[in-house]
Amino acid sequence: MIAGLNKELNMLEKAATEFSRKILFPEREANDTFPFGPFFDSTVEKAYSVDFFHTSIPEEAGGMGQGTPALSVILEALSAEDSSLAGILFTVSAAVDILAQTGNMDDLKALTAVKTPKDMFIACPVFCNPLDITDLPQAKKTADGLSLSGSLEYLTLGGLAKKALIPALVAGESGFSYVLADLEHPTVTRSAPILSLGLRACPSVDVTFNQSPCRLVGEERKGETYFTAMSDRMHVAAAAMSLGVMKGSFKEAFEYARKRKQGGREIIRWSELKMMLSNMAIHVKVADMLVAQACSAMESAAPDRAMAARAAALHVQSLATELTTDGVQAMGGVGYMKDFGQEKRFRDAKQLQALLGASPVKRLRYIDSL
Amino acid sequence: MISKREIKAFLAKHPAFDDISVSQQAVSKQPSAMLAETRKVVAYARKFNEEVVRPYALTLDMTMQENPAHLPWEFVKKANDWGLYTLWIPKLFGGKGFNFPSICAFLEEIGSECLAMANLIGVHYLGFAVGCSSWNVRLIKQLCADTLQGEQSGEPALISLALTEPGAGTDVEETELMDKGSVSCHAKKVDGGYIVNGTKVFISNGHLSRWHMLIAYADLGKPSSSTVMLAVETGTKGFSFGRMEKKMGQKGCPASELMFDNCFIPDENVLFDAEQGKKLKRGLSETNMQIIDFYFAASRAGVGAFGVGAARGAYREALNYAMTSELNGRPLIDHEWVQCLLAEMYKNMALGRFAYLEANYATGMHGMYKLLQQKQMYYLTKLTPKFVIDKTILPLLDKPWVTALMRKAYFDMQSEREIDITSGLASLAKFSGTDAGIRNCHLALELMGQSGLRHDRRAEKIMRDAKLLQIYEGTNQLNRLNLFKCLIASGTPDVKMFGRQ
Ligand SMILES: Cc1cc2nc3c(=O)[nH]c(=O)nc-3n(C[C@H](O)[C@H](O)[C@H](O)COP(=O)(O)OP(=O)(O)OC[C@H]3O[C@@H](n4cnc5c(N)ncnc54)[C@H](O)[C@@H]3O)c2cc1C
Prior knowledge:
The complex is a heterodimer. Chain A is α+β, with helices and mostly antiparallel strands. Helix content of chain A is 50%, strand content 15%. In chain A, strand 2 (138-142) and strand 3 form a beta hairpin. By secondary structure, chain B is α+β, with helices and mostly antiparallel strands. The chains are: A alpha+beta, B alpha+beta.
């Protein structure tokens, strides 16, 4: 539905859907074996070659400068088959958003000048709100700049990226700041990839800094402002990912229910299952409308766009976890097996619900900002 | 105030008082020593959890992710060494003879730490329950003897249930559906036995079991009245294992494909078939449903207990997280909304437990557990020395009249209402407990945010493991329908079920 907002989005949706079906779908099970199997480099390269990574980078930095709706269209279409790639794009886009807010064009230009797609990765802790972390790393001022010490859990893309955007407390001050750290510096220790519930090919690591050189991004103590502004936009993208998962899950279950027979008839003809599928279809429709509406508010710079985005994300993420639970259920035993996409969607939907912070805390913050 | 006749009439109105007061009726009837026994079982489970399950749960799950073909013999052997595969084998058959309902308390404990390991133990008793539901005492004795021997030799001899087929999952759990569906595992009667052809899928512990309780059909067009229950031993000619499924969770417990290609099973391994069924009061199709109800009444309560275990594991991880995290400068657990969330999780777990307890009370009064829970029988078996049992009772169990007697007592003397109440409450326990499990997993993961997503913090594994519980032993949809059939429709005879016109 987002694609209906304009022609350009429509074209993007077609391209992303084709990518999803032709590139992501056939390798879905194999890609999901990471970290036990290889990382899906060739898929990432293909995504890079069709400019998915450039979508949200500002034009003046060599990107396509397309807004959140465009990013959302892509992420939704990809997530219908496999949300890991969408998770990577989401993480990079969140970091790009913060860098762009701070007017940090040099770093953004450097991103578009890279030789390999992985060099475009910026690690960023996207499954939390830094405000909720009690012991953020500390950055100390030294003669050469800033030196970072301490640990940060669950840094997404931390094992693959060279650079990371880290929320840190600049010594002696309250309110966090963002710093850019070099993850390949010898003072930085990264854990093995963390085995996670979902989005396994968009891995996270725990990271420890020991007087590691880093550079301030934007203004000191303004991390919360940057994070809030970023998440106001990125909540729509997060909702779009959950929507994609919902669409994929419904489609798979619906198709299966029309073929699988029990009790001498297609299972869709058992009205209990039909009711389940109907509820799924209704959830998909409602979520689709919500995300489209939130995107439209964003396109028209409506004054309540941030609240629309957050409400849509919270609601759609929750619907997605319910729907994917039924998505497995509707297929019985095979829904639980890796040969089908349903079990992965169930895991991914739950993982996606934690984007930008724990769900109940996001809910409480919603009313705080009214 | 009210006449006797009125009392009777009012109490019979839907919902019948007998249906909603099962535990109150059962408590005074069952031996009081069962409680002390259950305490012992729970303590033993907690010890096993501390020493074996918790330290190994994440490693086993990780091993299976790395190498999905791994067979967890190391765990099965440990469980065997701890005597867990004979704890619930009745003393009459040489086992340790703990009361059957205590297995649910045990499975809740183990399930709260690792559902895959709980399944590696529990499925053996599902297989055993299926064997028992045939009331073929001679074969039950043999299965028990093998399990005991496996314990002594250190070579576990487990039992599995092979019911589900590629084209028939829900269908094989309900006779009405079975006849409309398309079952395909064929057992052809030949001289001296049956020849079996067909495939069974998703069989838990398949690759690990010595014995398989195979459900096949002599007439594929009329399976409900031609069901053949066979005890098939691993290694039998014509029987082989196919693939092991790649599952989302419960990875430590294999789900196997079992293939039968002109596999000859001798008469002595026939647990039950139409020929034997003819001697019973009910028609073959009704008897077949009664058998299904016998074993599922026991095992669905067990799956309910797994679900409560999942609910409890999720609750435990959420509580730990709340106690060790902060929000807005205050411990998370001091926030009112967190306290209510934990109370909700506690409630889910507790209600699931009440449901499986109630189901077990029903099975104790009216179902499979009845005989051994009668006070005289219970104390007799408990107090009689083993050598006396071995000498006087064990030899009798091979006699055909013992089987005939047991079948008379269990099949013919069980009333329709007794079948309904045991089967209906077991379905209630199954879907309540397992829905509670999934619900608590959702709540725990939401509370824990990114911490809940990590394998090393356990909650995500509980969630992956728990989803299976809503599917096997009849999907929760089928169990809702079964509750309707047993506890609601039985009072409204004109109701049509399963699409019957
Ligand atoms: C990991 C695992 C382990 C298992 N272990 C064992 C085992 O040890 N032994 C064994 O025999 N089996 C085992 N099973 C099989 C299990 O019991 C079946 O998967 C289950 O009964 C559902 O059957 P199905 O998978 O064929 O789903 P289906 O029967 O195809 O059902 C698909 C969907 O249709 C719905 N449906 C079907 N019929 C109806 C109807 N009449 N009315 C309304 N809805 C309907 C179901 O509720 C479900 O949502 C296991 C399964 C799994 C996944």
